[in-house]
Design a protein that fits this description.
This protein is an alpha/beta fold. It has one domain: Rossmann fold (3-Layer(aba) Sandwich). It has nine helices and ten strands. It has helices at 26-46, 63-74, 105-112, 135-143, 172-176, 187-197, 214-218, 233-241, 265-268; strands at 19-23, 52-56, 81-85, 87-89, 124-126, 147-150, 181-184, 208-211, 222-227, 259-264. The strands form two sheets. It has a seven-stranded parallel sheet, with helices on both faces. The protein has a three-stranded antiparallel sheet with strand order 4-8-7, with no helix packed on it. α8 links the parallel β9 and β10 (259-264). It is globular, with a radius of gyration of 18 Å. It starts with 18 loop residues before the first strand and ends in an 8-residue tail after the last helix.
Length: 276
């Protein structure tokens, strides 16, 4: 078997049933993400769904501003949409960080989507609550999930479903059943999030988060992933062609019956070493 990081761009789709779309840059990916959100909502409504349910990330960012603008320009309401936010950072006491914290995913969704939409046209948004961990699983059980959208972490996490720590033993099937929960964030996640969100100030990145589980994500009828970071070149190859393993949570996409990934051209480039 070829070592996944050595697979060239032109062979990324060989031997995988996951569909891969490549767009030129981050701006094009943002537009594609927003169009996909709207198209999947309209398709679910056309198929007779009363309440449409999406699991959604905050990262990548930018798509919700565009989605709000698309709805305004085209006269669409998202009032029948339930968006379940994937995760949220926690305080040391175990509560959500404040919504006005710049790192708050709840605050981001309010500022960049619901506040931009007319009254009665915005979706309902629910985030996992560390004090009521059964709330999101009950919603999923009641309504089902039409589409789970997501980004992918540097080690392949979906939401904040982190790979096992060294010495932690968990089987492939056990990991797939991990539920909504409070999760300690690993060193790699906090480091790369500091690079992207706090100009490298890792002490500003919380140590814990509440996350929707792999169980809820994998239950979705469709899985749609979006990747636009240059450091995702290796993990893209691992999720497409590596083994299905808790060490790369996004590799479980290989088991999903309807998965597609949209990436920027930069993400398809070969991983490699260089001194800047």
């Amino acid at each position: 078997m070829t070592d996944p990081p050595r697979i060239p761009a032109e062979k990324l789709v060989a031997g995988t049933r996951i569909r891969l779309a490549v767009v030129p840059d981050a701006q094009a990916l943002t537009a594609a993400f927003a169009e996909t959100l709207l198209a999947e909502y309209l398709a679910a409504k056309a198929a007779g769904r009363g309440t449409v349910v999406f699991i959604v990330p905050v990262g990548p960012v930018g798509q919700y501003d565009v989605l709000a603008d698309l709805c305004h320009a085209r006269g669409h309401s998202l009032s029948d949409l339930l968006m379940i936010g994937m995760d949220e950072y926690l305080t040391p006491a175990g509560d959500w960080i404040a919504e006005d914290d710049p790192l708050s995913f709840r605050g981001h969704m309010r500022r960049h989507m619901t506040a931009k939409m007319p009254d009665g046209a915005a979706p309902r948004i629910v985030f996992p609550d560390p004090r009521r961990l059964d709330e999101v699983p009950l919603l999923v059980s009641r309504h089902g999930v039409d589409v789970a959208f997501g980004g992918v972490g540097i080690r392949g996490h979906l939401a904040f479903n982190e790979p096992p720590e060294p010495g932690e033993i968990v089987s492939v099937d056990e990991f797939a059943q991990r539920p909504t929960r409070v999760q300690a964030l690993n060193r790699e996640t906090r480091t790369i999030n500091a690079v992207t969100a706090t100009r490298g100030a890792i002490d500003l990145i919380p140590t814990h988060a509440v996350t929707i589980g792999m169980k809820e994500i994998l239950s979705a009828g469709k899985l749609r992933l979006f990747m636009n970071r240059p450091w995702q070149t290796a993990v893209l190859r691992k999720l497409l062609h590596g083994p299905v393993t808790p060490d790369v949570p996004a590799s479980y996409a290989q088991r999903h019956p309807d998965c597609s990934i949209t990436v920027t051209e930069e993400v398809t480039r070969m991983p490699g070493a260089t001194l800047a």
